Amino acid sequence: MANDTSEKTPLLDNEDDSSEYRRSREQVKSLYLKASSQKSGIIAPEDLYCRNTINISASNSNFQDIKEADYIVAIFVVAFDTRTGNIIEWCKPEDSDLDGVEFKAMASGSHTILKDFIYFKKDNLYGLSCFENMPVESELERGARMKSVGILATSYTSLYRHMQFLENQVRHQLETPGRYEQLRAFWEDRKGSLPMSNPGRSLLSPMTEIPRADMRITHPAGCFSQFLKFFGEQIFVLWKYALLRRRILFFSPPPIGVVCYRVYCACCLARHTIPEIPEKPLKPHFYVNIADIDRLETEVSYLACTTEKIFQEKSHLYDVYVDNQNVETHIPSLQDMLRLNDSDRDKYSKLLNQSEEVYASLPRTVSEELYSRDMEDDEVADDEQVFITFFTEQNNRIFQTLLDVASTSDRTLTMDHMRSMGLDPVRDRQFVMDLVELHGIDVMLVIDNPCCGV
């Protein structure tokens, strides 16, 4: 990969950038591109296998003394018992609070597929499990042996690098039930303890310790390109809902693993680097089931996915329901945002062109295998760079323009302001109204004067 990634990741066009916005663009490039321009600045998965905390010295980047919490607090095996259903067959430590994990680690409907992986949230912890369904000649097991092997950690950014081990172990547990030696060894080598300096505080935030480099280990190669390809232009419908911090629920029948990645990608749509607008990362719950209903009722903003169709009937739990590629909302003020406008299509075209430039520059074998977990990070880093940088810059442009208008004497948002933000002056009016209300930005939208466009 070329060292100068900015040449391969053109920025959004804006000839009238203010000096403040130009500075924010430089922040974006520094934050999201520079760490990936040199391989020594990337946190490689093999360098992250450690017990507690790691220090990375990125001599060719701005990251120094970067630390990531890597606390694995439990490892477990879930099995399907034909008499009692899902059970925790084995775990370390033995006194782990795994209440409900047996139904998260083995998603509803998993009996219909052979393999899957599931990301989920358990209280303030995040989990990853690998599931497999193996046919057996056993009347007691009704012809199928189903198990999941998983871990719980304090951050979802530390989970993906253990995927291959979990996949191997679930196959091992199916073929040789009751043999836990390798799991015990893994636990002894990787276990961590919760931070005890202040037991009352919340666990470490998964997105605050490493501004950019954490992204290298949270998804497989091609995750963002698959997300873009799957939703197409509708990605900008999801973008508006994510920026408004709505409750978004993705539905899909099993397998659910790839949908967990859609949850993760959707979280990235709302990123920005404008310091005057406090960034409140969307909460990824990943896989949820009916046992999570009480928790979801208390959330004002989240992203999650499910295999249980019953959620569609419980509209009080979500604002936006995504059934594969069909995006729906029952909130009247959000329904106009379902309709794409010319500004959305223009943004999509720019994003697509940038992505195609990246993929065209990759060797054919690389572009064909973008979704392989075995690829080198540096070969596909641009996949992530294009996506993250594009939406961060787009969001920066909107917020900086709104703040600039709020600092003027009349605080009036005009048609030209809307266009400079890459928005439709008429069709994106409700979106902007909701956005300024959400963040308490004091601007005047002239909504009753057609000549003003907003």
Automatic annotation (TrEMBL):
GO terms for molecular function: guanyl-nucleotide exchange factor activity. This is DENN domain-containing protein 11. GO terms for cellular component: cytoplasm. Belongs to the DENND11 family. InterPro entries: DENND11/AVL9_GEFs, LCHN/Anr2, Tripartite_DENN. Pfam families: DENND11. Residues 1-454 form the UDENN domain. Residues 1-23 are annotated as: Disordered. It comes from Branchiostoma floridae. Keywords: Guanine-nucleotide releasing factor. PROSITE patterns: DENN. It comes from the Eukaryota.
